[in-house]
Structure formats: C-alpha cells, structure tokens
Amino acid sequence: MDQLQLLVSGLANGCVYGLIALGFVLIYKATEAVNFAQGDFMMLGAFVALGLTNAEYMALPFWLAVPLSIAVMAALGYLLDLLILRRLFGQSQIAVVILTIALGFVIRFVAGVIWGHEPQTLQSPLAHGDLRLGGVTISLADLSVIVVTVLLTLCLYQFFQRTRLGLAMQAASQNQMAAYVMGIPVKRVQGLIWALSGATAAVAGILFASKGAMDPNAGLLGIKAFAAAVIGGFGSLPGALIGGLIVGVIEPFASRYLAAGYSQIAPYALLLAVLVFRPSGLLSQTRLKKV
Amino acid sequence: MNAPLLEIRNLESFYGPIMAIRGVSLSVEAGQIVTVLGANGAGKSTLLRTISGLMDPEKGEIHFNGRPIHGQEPHHVVEAGIVHVPEGREVFPLLTVDENLTLGAYTRRDTAAIAEDREKVFAYFPILAERRHQEAGTLSGGQQQMLAIGRGLMLRPRIMLLDEPSLGLSPLLAQEIFAILRRLNTEEGVTMMLVEQNARVALDLAHQGYVMEIGRIVMSGSAARLRDSEDIRAFYLGHQETGQRGEKRWKRKKTWR
Q1: N or C terminus of chain B: which is more exposed, having fewer CB within 10 Å?
Q2: Do A171 and B54 touch (CB under 8 A)?
Q3: Which residue of B has its CA nearest to A168?
Q4: Is the distance from CB of B36 to CB of B82 less than 8 angstroms?
Q5: Does the structure show a pLDDT above 50 at B183?
Q6: All domains of chain B, ordered by start, with CATH?
Q7: Burial track A24-35 (b if 16+ CB lie within 10 A, e otherwise)
Q8: Is the pLDDT of residue A229 over 50?
Q9: Is B155 within 8 Å of A182 when comparing Cβ atoms?
Q10: What 8-state DSSP symbol labels residue A143?
C-alpha cells in the first residue's frame, strides 16, 4: 500500500514533467532547436493564472483565468517566434540554444519583478480535497494533473494524426525543404508550434501550481523535464510523457529507499544509463535517410 | 505564338558570395518538356530553387503565366501552380505514403478532385497503391522517387520542376521513371522542366533543351538539334571521335567558348 501511495504521487509529478517535456519535444521536432526556457514558460504560465485569479491581484473566477492564461501563453509563444527566433533563421543551433537560455533568465526576473520572489499559492479549486480509493489517498490536485495530462496528450495525438494543420506540422518537422515546396507556409506553422508549446506550458504551470507553492525559480524544474524528454527519446510525443512518468516515479522511490544524497541524482543517473545503452531514447523516431 | 508559360530573364542568384547563376534567360512553352543539361555545379539545381522560391534571385525576372513570381515565398509560388520535385527523393519519412500524397494537395480544397487525383497517381505508380499505408522512409529509393513525383502531381501543377529524377537509381528504374514522365506529358499534358545529368535520356524525352555551364546557358535549341551537336555528343553523350591518324583527341576544345 505504501508503494502504491508513492507511485500515485510520483505519477502526478511525472505528469507535470511530461507536460513540460512535451513542450521541449514539440519545438525540437518543428524547428530542431531546444527551447531551454520551457520550464520558465511553465512557471510564467502558472504566475499569469495566479495573477488573473488570486484575490490579491485581479480576482477573476478560476475557470475564466485558466483559458485566459492559456491564451496569453500561446500568444507569447507565437510572438517570441515571430519577433525574436525567426531573426535567427539560418544561424547555428548554438545561437538558438543560448538565446532560449537567456530568455529563461529574462522570464524568471520579469516574473520576480511583477509577482515578487516569495513562494505563492494559486487559489485553485483543485488544490483542496482528497479522494480515498481503497487504502490510497489521492489529492484532487494529483488526480486532476493525471487526468488532464492524459486528455491533453490524447488531444495532441489526435490533432497531429487527423487534422490538416497537424499533418503539416509533422511534415515541416520531418523535411523542411519538402514542406516548403508542397506549399506549406513553414514559418507560420513553426510559429503555431511555439504557440502550442506555450499553451502546453500554461496547462503544466496551472496544474503544478495547484499542487503547491510557486516561486519564479520553479522553472528550473525544466532541467528534470529535459532529462525526461531525452530519456523518452527526443522527438517522440509519447516518449516525452513516458520519460516524464519514469522520472516522476523514480524520485519518490529513490528518496524513500536511498540515502538522502543519492536520491537527488537518481533521475540523472537514469539519464546517463539511457544515453549509454540506448542513445536515441526509449521511444526513438529517428531513422536514417536513405541516400 | 502565345506567350510562354514560364519565362526567365537575366536571372542572377548567389549562394552567399558565390554567384551560382550568372544571367540565365530561358522559356518553357505550355505542354512541353524542357531539359536543362549540365555538369555538377553548373547551377541547374540553383535555377530550379530560384524558380520555386526556395532562394531569392539577386537580379532578373521570372514570369509565370504572365505574372512575375520572382522573390516570392515558396507557398505563393506553389499556389500559382508550380511544383518543385527536389533532387534526392525528399519525402516525409515518418508519414505514410497516403499522408505524403495528402500533403501534396495541401494548397487545394476540392476534396472530390483530390480523391480522383490520388487514384490517378496510384494508376501511374501501382506500387504506391500497394504500399499506401507504409511509412515513406521504409520505401526503396526508386519507390521514394515515384512518391515524390506522385506527390507533386497531387497539386495538379501547371508545370513540374524535376531535379535529377534518375539520381542514384538503377538504369532500369530510371528508364521506368522516364517512361512514366513521358506518359504524363502526352496523356495529361503536364508541362515539365527537367534538370538532368543523364543527357541521353533527357534529350530523348524533351522537346527543347538548354545546356548550362558555370551558371550560364551556353547552348539551346530543340532536343533533336542538341542531340546532333558535336559538342553535346562529345561532352555529354560520350561519343569518342577519332582523329585522322586513328588516335583519340583528348584535348578537344568546346566550340561554344
């Protein structure tokens, strides 16, 4: 029963990692760049929701604040691509990586200036209440994290498989030149992917903030999500989710059964193991091009 | 005589500081196959990339159907009815054959006609119908080339720009592809601009031909005229002449310079 309890809380954490990892993978697939500000996007999404709904700020109803903050983050993602990243077109990937790291710092400090550096709690209706299933207690927050993550992943999957735009996004990420000559407006499609990953980050942020207090440094969690994305096989959406779940589940078990110093490194030890034994990740989608 | 479907005037294109096209003018009449011959690095692919908007020209004009299209984004060029089949079988490797074809019709909305065209592509390339649910990356090289051409057809293009469709294929497969291109031209009236290194098959297929060297057009004319030209025979078709004393003339000069 004890293990089951650990598993549930690990899965809930893992879902948040998985959602951030989804954002990493979306952008990596579309633009072959890694957005190291993805964790900070998540944090910013949480603070935007917090600013909209908390009593001491704008005090909007929670269920209005959620779609609003998702829209704000989507717009921010699109504008970042339009105004900043598109200007780096043709530069080396390193330039993009450094830019996104810098963006992460900027977002962290801007959030600190607006909302302060103290931890704050999102006044979310999801934050209170427990469910008892057999001997296992699940908080409403953990349950909603798991449910929303599963639903969102299914929606994204359907979107990529069934819609014209989703197909175009896959095409643009698999072969940019061929996408261009098929008449797909590649730059606009990439902007929309940034918007999508901004929206995903907002969802992750709201869910994460429902589980506990937020402060502007919460974005550093993105490092764990990055590890999750690599474990899952960078470039695979289901892989990102599975990687997130693995990292999330390992953490509570490691801190329970390993000495304090070792538990922190467990996710990264796994990352190393994956990189050594299966360098393309658990669910890799890379295939060599035939010449 | 009607105005040509595609007309290029004094086109100049750069790769960074390198001038890849140095003032090219050519025209393609509707319903014809026009081939551009030339060695590696002559600028043939750059020419196609400039037409399709993947590269912007520095100078010169491209008119399609009487409208200027130079310097436009690729998706505007596609909407005008120009489809570029790039060299090297650029398919979407993780999508199925069917999905690749769907993307060929990305700019079209007429669902019923798209379904018709899909059947037409399958009629020309029966192997694609067999493999329609397979990922494109798992196809053989020849099948990928067929898919790239079929995907181009899905646009119902007014002109196809074909970049080395025979590259890396066995002679037999290349022959098969060229036979299908000929059928497409005679049965469907598809206008084509064909870039090739294999001058023999290209001149057999084409109505008109141009020869490019280091970014310039050095020769042009009907395919029959080019086939008979001494220079083409010597440098592109590989005929060896023997001199008066029965020795090979290794140091023959091209006469167009």
Answers
A1: N
A2: no
A3: B103
A4: no
A5: yes
A6: 6-81+159-252 (3.40.50.300), 95-156 (no CATH)
A7: bbbbbbbbebbb
A8: yes
A9: yes
A10: H
Chain A closest-CA separation from residue B95 CA (Å): 8
**Is B90 touching A (CB cutoff 8 A)?**
yes
ipTM, interface predicted TM-score of the complex: 0.86
Reported as a single tens digit per residue, the pLDDT across A120-142 is: 999 888 888 888 877 788 899 99
Name the percent of chain B in helix, strand, coil, to the closest 5: 35, 25, 35
Please state, in angstroms and rounded to a whole number, the distance separating the CA atoms of residues A224 and B5: 57
Contact A174 B95 (CB under 8 A): yes
For B84, residues 6+ apart whose C-beta sits below 8 A from its C-beta are A181, B48, B49, B51, B52, B54, B152, B161, B163
Q: Do B168 and A291 touch (CB under 8 A)?
A: yes
Contact B54 A180 (CB under 8 A): yes
Task: Give the residue among A15, A23, A26 at the shortest CA–CA distance from A39.
Answer: A23
Which chain A residues touch B if contact means CB-CB below 8 Å? Answer: 164, 167-168, 170-171, 174-175, 177-185, 285, 287, 289-291
Measured CA distances, A35 to A52, A194, A267, B181 (Å): 26, 10, 20, 44
- The sheet carrying B191-196 orders its strands as B82-85, B159-163, B191-196, B33-37, B208-213, B216-222
Q: How many helices (H) and strands (E) does chain B have?
A: 10, 10
Angle at A143 between CA A139 and CA A144, to 5 degrees: 115
Backbone angles phi, psi at B254, to 5 degrees: -75, 140
Residue of B89, B92, B134 to mutate, testing the A interface (most A Cβ within 10 Å of its Cβ): B92
Task: Give A205 to chain B, closest Cα distance, Å.
Answer: 31
* Rounded Cα–Cα distance for residues A198 and A196 (Å): 5
Which one-letter amino acid corresponds to residue A152?
L
Structure confidence by residue, pLDDT tens digits, B6-24: 999 999 999 888 889 999 9
Tracing tokens 């036979």 back to the chain, one arrives at B179
Q: Does B74 touch chain A (CB under 8 A)?
A: yes
* Among B180, B31, B205, B194, CA closest to B120: B180
User: What's chain B's Rg over C-alpha atoms?
Assistant: 19
Are the C-beta atoms of residues A253 and A31 closer than 8 Å to each other?
Answer: no
Cβ(B85)–Cβ(B149) below 8 Å = yes
- Model pTM score: 0.86
Residue in B75, B137, B168 closest to A185 by CB = B75
How many contacts does A have with B, using Cβ atoms within 8 A?
Answer: 77
B94 vs A185: CB contact, 8 Å cut-off? Answer: no
Quick check: B85 and A181 CB within 8 A?
yes
Q: Which residue has the tokens 């450094």?
A: A98
Q: Do B93 and A184 touch (CB under 8 A)?
A: no
Output the furthest CA–CA distance in chain B (Å, rounded).
68
